[in-house]
Amino acid sequence: MGRQELALLIPILALAIPVIAVISAGVQKLAKIRLEEARIRFGGGGGEPGEVQALRGEVDAMRSELIELQERVDFAERMLANPNRSGDSTRGTNPQGGE
After folding, report:
1. How far is CA 63 from CA 28, 51, 53, 60, in A?
2. 23, 88 contact by CB (below 8 A)
3. Average pLDDT in the 43-49 region?
4. pTM of the predicted model, to two decimals?
5. Kind and range of the H or E element at 77?
6. CA distance linking residue 22 with residue 65, whole number of Å
């Protein structure tokens, strides 16, 4: 493995580790919420209806956060996969179609 390849791999790993940690923490929280909801639903866990609604709201919030994190990871992976490209996808093109 050459120095350039290693130099490219280091920032990818540095960014991937915290992203993976955040995603796994979100998945873990989501699993705990779903488990508690299943216990209440099937075991009659003594939970109040308002508590179940609150848990459902938390699950929905966690799902939306997880989706947003997945989109951010996808974006970061695309940016790291093509380091020569800037954030502007229209760079070098003429919107008039002339050149």
Report:
1. 12, 18, 15, 5
2. no
3. 65
4. 0.40
5. helix 49-81
6. 10
